[in-house]
Amino acid sequence: MNQSDLLKELRIDRAAPPAPASRRWLWLAAAVLAVALVLAGVGYFGRTPEAQVKVATAEPVGAAANSASVLDATGYVVARREATVSAKITGKVRDVRIEEGQHVEAGQVLATLDDVDARAALDVVNAQLVATRSQSDEIRTNLGNAEREYARQQTLADRKLTSVQALDSARTLAEALRARLAAQLDAEKVASEQLAQARVQLDNTIIRAPFSGVVTVKAAQPGEIVSPLSAGGGFTRTGIGTIVDMDSLEIEVDVNESYINRVQAGQRVEAVLNAYPDWKIPASVIAIIPTADRAKATVKVRIALGQKDARIVPEMGVRVSFLEDAKPTDPAASARTVLVPLAALRQDGAQDIVFVVRDGVVRRRAVNVGASVGASREIRAGINAGDLVVIDGPADLADGAKVRIGETGT
User: Fold this and answer.
1) What pLDDT, on a 0 to 100 scale, did the predictor assign at position 34?
2) Strand pairing category for 338-341 and 346-348
3) CA-CA distance, 51 to 398, in Å (whole number)?
4) Pairing, β 225-226 against β 236-237
5) Which of the residues 115, 169, 279, 294 could staple to 205 if both were Cys, CB 3.0 to 4.6 A apart?
6) What are phi and psi of 358, to 5 degrees?
7) What is each CA distance from 88 to 85, 108, 113, 229, 240, in whole angstroms?
8) What is the pLDDT of residue 54?
């Protein structure tokens, strides 16, 4: 093949048919779809996740705001009448008649001790008393005969029919029997006192409740040795059980001495048990103990409970708010005041703020706070009743952030 033939092979055939137009549109659609997918992926993975928050509703000020808290403190429920009951003597427990949680009345038998020795001693003393009384009766009979003999000798002596010696003997015998009878009567009295003492010793083997209350501790079992003194180390019990007078329950709190001037006797108090946080118990100050704890710089305050309830038991933890009657305020201002949980308040420098949720977005609100009312705080300006405020959320929550409400608090 020569050079001219080769050039003919390389020539472009302009008469060949063009590529189909449908294929060009297919490639263009694929390119547009790829760009859309890329943009969608960037939007999905680059979006800011919504934070989950817990909210509460701002409540209008009601009757609960008639009193404001001037001081909050923590303490415990205590019993003013509580006793660990023990025996007055050392002895072996025969039976125990109490269980934890049992209510007992004053004088009720709680337990008994082995009384064999006490009963034997009582029998001996009783026999001694009987013998002493028999001897007294014998002496009394002899004394009667001696006094009659002395009277006869006196009559005969007046008539000069007996000797002076016989008269003296009769008088001496009567006086001796009289003295012996007096001594015997004293011995009889001693025997009677010993009998009473033996009965007391026997009664000491019976252990009774000193007052009405509830048994909180059962400390002894039959067969154990109990004693009013811990003389036997770990082998001797010092008590049968512990009784608490539930009507004597009260609250004791330690108040920092710097704030004790806010507390006074008779002041109204609102108490909340840790076990029942939604139960507000009315109470009042009984007394301020007139001494301070140097180590803790606190003063102890006694508080009386306004309600008696079986749910209140000794040693429960309790939070108290010392209340002060609210001063009259402008009705218009009171209408604008709302209550929010303490957890809703945050600090931004020196400004108090809350975050309000509306349409899935939080808004930062500067607020004017008022007095504490239990576990809530007055907000006098900045939000309205019915607003949803954040009480639990991320620490870096910012104005305008999108959120998802996970739980509604109270």
Assistant:
1) 65
2) unpaired
3) 11
4) parallel
5) 115
6) -145, 120
7) 10, 16, 11, 9, 11
8) 82
User: How far are the Cα atoms of 50, 54, 324, 338 from residue 70, in angstroms, in the given order?
Assistant: 39, 28, 6, 18
Pairing of strands 51-57, 403-408: parallel
- What stretch of H or E contains 320? strand 317-325
Q: Which of 397, 401, 371 is nearest to 65 (CA)?
A: 371
Structural domain includes residue 47: no
Helix (H, G, I), strand (E, B) or coil at 299: strand
For residue 248, give every residue at least 6 positions away whose Cβ sits within 8 Å of its Cβ, in sequence order, or none. Answer: 79, 80, 81, 82
pLDDT at 45: 46
For the chain, the residue count is 410
Same domain for 90 and 228: yes
Structure tokens at 32: 């547009």
When pLDDT is cut at 50, 70 and 90, the band that residue 37 belongs to is low
CATH code of 224's domain: 2.40.50.100
Range(s) of the domain holding residue 92 = 82-114+205-244
Nearest to 357 by CA among 315, 392, 322: 392
Q: Are 209 and 105 in contact (CB under 8 A)?
A: yes
Q: What are 375-408's pLDDT values in tens digits? A: 778 888 888 888 888 888 887 888 888 887 876 6
| pLDDT classification of 7: cutoffs 50, 70, 90 | very low
The domain that contains 312 carries what CATH number? 2.40.30.170
Q: Which residues pair with 252 in a beta bridge?
A: 76, 302
- pLDDT of 145 higher than 60: yes
Chain centre distance of CA 283: 15
What is the C-alpha to C-alpha distance for residues 318 and 301, in angstroms, rounded to an integer?
13
Query: Of all residues in the chain, what percent carry a pLDDT higher than 70?
Result: 81
Phi then psi for 244, rounded to 5 degrees? -120, 130
Question: Which residues are within 8 A (CB) of 193 and not within 5 positions of it... i.e. 6 or more apart?
Answer: none
Phi, psi of 192 (to 5 degrees): -65, -40
Number of other CB atoms surrounding residue 307 within 10 Å: 12
Among 325, 342, 357, residue at a domain's last position: 325
Q: Is a pLDDT exceeding 70 seen at residue 25?
A: no
Q: How far apart are CA 314 and CA 216, in angstroms?
A: 10
In this model, does residue 343 exceed pLDDT 90? no
Can you spell out the DSSP letters for 113-156? E--HHHHHHHHHHHHHHHHHHHHHHHHHHHHHHHHHHHHHHHHH
pLDDT of 257:
92
Q: Token pair for residue 385?
A: 């009743």
- Indicate whether 391 belongs to any domain: yes
